[in-house]
Amino acid sequence: MKNILFSLLGLTIILSSCSTYSKATAALSSWNGHSKQELYMQWGAPNEVFPIDNGEILVFYGKTKYNHNIVIGTTTTSGVCKVQIYVDNSGTIYTSSFENCGMKYLIHKGRK
After folding, report:
1. Spatial distance between the Cα atoms of 5 and 61, rounded to a whole number of angstroms
2. Are 39 and 27 in contact (CB under 8 A)?
3. C-alpha angle 42/20/46, rounded to 5°?
4. Would you state the pLDDT for residue 6?
5. CATH top class, domain 2-108
6. 24-40 residue pLDDT tens
7. Average pLDDT over the chain, rounded to whole?
């Protein structure tokens, strides 16, 4: 009986995490089709901008609940929220990605 209860509890936690992840992904995707200028008005300027063949990648770093573990001599910054927004040559957002971000942070950053 205990094994069944623990299994159900574990499954509930996993499913609720997936739901929150989906909401965060949807919030970030809500910027697709909008302009870089609209994003700047709400988020401010990006921390970094990388040119690519069909446009650019805007990189934003945010705070998380995690401790910052920066390894000297490498680019590893685990615990730092990193959001990448891909913008085409016309200045329109077409996709995005994130890593190490709190889901509430991303949901808050969704298009309003």
Report:
1. 39
2. no
3. 25
4. 46
5. alpha beta
6. 788 888 899 999 999 99
7. 73
